Amino acid sequence: MQVPVRDASTVLPLRNGSDGLEVFMVKRDSRLGFLGGAHVFPGGAVDDADSDPRLDGLCEGMTAEQAAEALAIKDVDRARGYTFAAIRELFEEAGILLARGTSGEWVDLDEDTEDSHRLLGLRAPLAKGELSLADLAEQESLRLNTGALHYFAHWITPERESKRFDTRFFLAEIPHCQSADHDRHETTEGEWLTPAAALKRYAARDIELVPPTICSLDRLAVDSSVEEALQAARELDVVEVLPKISINDGDVTILYSGDDDYQSGVARRASSGMLLNRLVLRDGLWERP
User: Fold this and answer.
1) 69-103 b/e with 16+ CB inside 10 Å = b?
2) CB-based contact 245:73 (threshold 8 Å)
3) Range(s) of the domain holding residue 258
């Protein structure tokens, strides 16, 4: 039986910290069946309401047509879904709302006001599907800032998995007047980490990471600031990544396009001169050979 593939969006929230570029990561509740216990970036599946045409008149920056071009998708409704799912999931899971008020300024969620408390109180109804993103923007007179999203990566879950997603990854700089905070429902922790620190903690078995997260952190680790990361994303030619899982002689290997063994899907022992684009599971950790 073929497993259906759902569209999903993931956002890497960025800020400049004392040690350089930092990304906000959340720890999924260990009781969840999918990626339970892992440190991930905020994100989730695209809902039907994320493709609501009303959203076109409630945003600024990137139109649905421009999103379709950037994501190389012919279906404008589908592209709209990816974009607004990213904004919705970022607010639900991290408390970051990429929106401006009637003044044209970023929505201030740090100030202790009735408006900020009311907006933050809408995270739960939004997550439960009791409120749509379009309804939220209309009732609060907000302009959703799609221009703050920068397309970063495209991952498709391997064919042998029981749950599969076609996921688009975006970078977004956190507004200066907002502070990230995990939702305490699907996630039990949230913290700002430099990419290098996150990878170091994974190697020390302090946190759990999955391959797409590892590869994303690897790529971010070369940038020293938010500005560098966003500029690199603007120049990036995003390619589809559909990993293949090879189990050979007891070794578990994830193969990516460009590896000599990708077409066959069977990882041979690495030899000198081989082109390698893979991760190998060694003693419970994913490593580059």
Assistant:
1) ebbebeebebbbbbbbbbbbbbbbbbbbbbbbeee
2) no
3) 244-287
- Is the domain of 192 the same as that of 283? no
Tens of pLDDT, residues 30-74 = 777 667 789 999 999 999 999 999 999 999 999 999 999 999 999
Q: In this structure, what token pair is assigned to residue 179? A: 């502070």
Percentage above 90 pLDDT, the chain: 86
How many structural domains is the chain composed of? 2
Amino acid at 286: W
**Which tens digit of pLDDT belongs to each residue from 71-100?**
999 999 999 999 999 999 999 999 999 999
Mean of the per-residue pLDDT values of the chain? 94
Domain end call among 241, 257, 276? 241
Same domain, 254 and 229: no
Strands 164-173, 244-248: pairing kind: unpaired
What's the angle, vertex CA 120, arms to CA 144 and CA 129, rounded to 5?
75
Q: Is 244 exposed, middle or buried (0-12, 13-18, 19+ CB in 10 A)?
A: buried
Average pLDDT over residues 137-143: 97
DSSP assignment string, 41-105: -SEEEPPGGGG-GGGGGGEESS-HHHHHHHTT-S-HHHHHHHHHHHHHHHHHHH----EE-TTSS
CA dihedral 259, 218, 145, 65 (to 10 degrees): -10
What is the mean pLDDT of the segment spanning 129-144? 97
Closest CA to 98 of 215, 185, 180, 219: 180
pLDDT of residue 29: 82
Q: What is the CATH number of the domain that holds 151?
A: 3.90.79.10
Distance CA(52)–CA(153), nearest Å, equals: 24
Q: 174 near 90, Cβ under 8 Å?
A: no
